[in-house]
Amino acid sequence: MKKIKIKIWIEDDEKIFGKGNYELLKAIEECGSINQAAKKLNMSYKKAWLKKEQTQDFLGGEIFISKKDASLDSGTKLSPRAKGFLDFYTELEKELEENANIKFKEKKENE
Q1: Residues 75, 14: Cα–Cα separation, whole Å
Q2: Are 4 and 100 in contact (CB under 8 A)?
Q3: By 3-state DSSP, what share of the chain in percent is helix, strand and coil, each rounded to 5?
Q4: What is the pTM (predicted TM-score) of this model?
Q5: Which residues contact 89 (CB under 8 A, 6 or more apart)?
Q6: Angle at the Cα of 63 (from 26 to 89), degrees rounded to 5?
Q7: Where are the beta strands (DSSP E) in 20-86?
Q8: What is the tens place of the pLDDT at every residue in 41-97?
Q9: Which residue, 12, 13, 27, 97, is most buried by CB atoms nearer than 10 A?
Q10: Containing H/E element for 16?
Q11: Which residues lie closer than 8 Å to 100 by C-beta, 6 or more apart?
Q12: Could you give the 3-state DSSP secondary structure of residue 73?
């Protein structure tokens, strides 16, 4: 069955937030560290760090909360701002794909 898949990015002048930024944030959220997220994505730590800096610049503030101690909640977590934007991006992508597929199905039915 044919269906539409889309790639979206959001631009703000020269700054861009796209799938790569999204995937890095998701991986950091899952792994609890930039280093582990980079490994999961088969990305160098340097590239992950640069992408993290770009994402932070795009969102206009800190995107991580790091806690370094022996407690169970130590590590790197997404800030509320980053988590909210990640949720927004996820919902936006889902909604756009759903709408595109509805249009596609309507077009195929009218042929």
Answers
A1: 31
A2: yes
A3: 60, 15, 30
A4: 0.82
A5: 8, 10, 17, 22
A6: 50
A7: 64-67, 75-78
A8: 999 999 999 999 999 999 988 888 877 665 566 678 899 999 999 999 999 999 999
A9: 27
A10: strand 15-17
A11: 4, 6
A12: coil
Measured at the CA of 100, the angle between CA 58 and CA 4, to 5 degrees, comes to 90
Which residue shows structure tokens 């269906």? 3
CA-closest candidate to residue 56, choices 15, 88, 89, 90: 15
Which tens digit of pLDDT belongs to each residue from 25-35?
999 999 988 99
Burial of residue 18 (CB within 10 Å: 0-12, 13-18, 19+) is middle
Q: Which distant-in-sequence residues (6+ apart) come within 8 Å of 54 by Cβ?
A: 15, 16, 21
